Amino acid sequence: MKKVNIGTNAFLYPMPVTLVGSLVEGRPNFMAVAWVSRVNSMPPILGAAINQRHHTPQGIQENQSFSVNIPSLELMEKTDYCGLVSGREQDKSDLFEIFYGELKTAPMIQECPLCLECKLLQVVPLPTNSLYLGEIVGAYSEERYLTDGKPDIRKMNPFVLTMPDNRYWKVGDPAGSAWTIGKNLKKG
Amino acid sequence: MKKVNIGTNAFLYPMPVTLVGSLVEGRPNFMAVAWVSRVNSMPPILGAAINQRHHTPQGIQENQSFSVNIPSLELMEKTDYCGLVSGREQDKSDLFEIFYGELKTAPMIQECPLCLECKLLQVVPLPTNSLYLGEIVGAYSEERYLTDGKPDIRKMNPFVLTMPDNRYWKVGDPAGSAWTIGKNLKKG
User: Fold this and answer.
1) Do residues B109 and B98 lie in contact, with contact meaning Cβ atoms separated by under 8 Å?
2) B140 and A36 in contact by Cβ < 8 A?
3) Which residues in B lie closer than 8 A to residue A164 (C-beta atoms)?
4) Which residues of chain B make contact with A68, given a CB cutoff of 8 A?
């Protein structure tokens, strides 16, 4: 089949949905962020790409910390709201039950099945966004979301995003074991 | 419910699965990468975090380019193989039908429903990995994967990864409209 060039503003399919937490002028704020990825193995480092015009960068810079929270499907409406409205316009600090970890300045969301507490290591400035690189200093979950001590995506029930059609999707059925099912193709 | 600290080596749920293509000493090579994200709006920039010991970084540096290909579920076994075996050990250039875009040095995979051609802009060195930031200069798909000119995840049928349980998952049902369903929560 013939390939067509669909232009340059293309995306990954799908993207994880997170809520980035920060303390801006002392007030907890949460922003929906899907441009986020692990970027380093050891120590564990995350990167979150955020438009410089947003409210959140101020809080990250002020406290040199932030959190990355994975919401479950039940929090989809609140998560979407956090992506629609700036903390400059509306107070989002009362949307969730908030807790803190060892950094004391990275607000995390009690209702989220997994919360990653990050210490800012580096900011990579880019044309419209900045990439905030943070070392994960703690990850908080609950026994009910774990299987064999590891987060279980079926129990967490997160959701994902596609752009530019701007839709959320559930995670589906298991498809295979990673670093395993490709062994059949090894040569020799 | 009480939160438990599960340690620092935590991940996002779920992560997109991609194949990063590069030309290493003139030979096309593909590596499975899930630590990848858009990082800038305009111009469109992607980041891919790759362990420095891998074969791929050599190719990216040599040609100042790479590709990010989104495999469909049908390619899961080949994708997993590309994450298991280094291009130093086995020739992966014959696994897929390969094509090139305008850069001529970023091999892309004909069988993948979406291929992003990237020009290297910057390398951010990190302790174990490097983050390769590339501007998307072309995105290649096929009419059969598009709806209203945009990639349609239901037609593309990609899959996602969870770590550290190392499992692949299908994408599930639609869950809602982004930047829309949260409007109900707006105050005033």
Assistant:
1) yes
2) no
3) 150
4) 12
Q: Is residue A74 classed as helix, strand or coil in its secondary structure? A: helix
Backbone angles phi, psi at B111, to 5 degrees: -75, -15
- Among B117, B118, B113, which Cα is nearest to B158's? B113
Q: Which two tokens stand for residue B93?
A: 């250039």
Q: Are strands A167-177 and A4-5 parallel, antiparallel or unpaired?
A: unpaired
| B177/A164 CB distance under 8 A | no
Radius of gyration of chain A (CA): 18
- From the centroid of its chain, how far is CA B188? 41
Residues of chain B contacting residue A123, judged by C-beta atoms under 8 Å apart = none
Q: Which of A114, A142, A166 sits opposite B2 (nearest CB)?
A: A142
Tell me how close the Cα of A58 comes to any Cα of chain B, in angstroms.
18
Contact yes or no for B129 and A156 at CB 8 A = no
User: Could you say which of B14, B49, B135 has the minimum Cβ distance to residue A16?
Assistant: B14
Interatomic CA distance for residues A158 and B12, integer angstroms:
10
Q: Do A114 and B82 touch (CB under 8 A)?
A: no
Per-residue pLDDT 10s for chain B (188 aa) are: 699 999 999 999 999 999 999 999 999 999 999 999 999 999 999 999 999 999 999 999 999 999 999 999 999 999 999 999 999 999 999 999 999 999 999 999 999 999 999 999 999 999 999 999 999 999 999 999 999 999 999 999 999 999 999 999 999 999 999 999 999 999 86
Measured CA distances, B43 to A127, B46, B133, B137, B174 (Å) = 7, 10, 12, 9, 29
Nearest to A42 among B38, B95, B128 (CB): B128
B161, β-bridge pairs:
B15, B168
CB distance B178 to A166 below 8 Å: yes
Total-model pTM: 0.97
Distance CA(B183)–CA(A91), nearest Å, equals: 15
Q: Under DSSP, is residue B74 helix (H, G, I), strand (E, B) or coil? A: helix
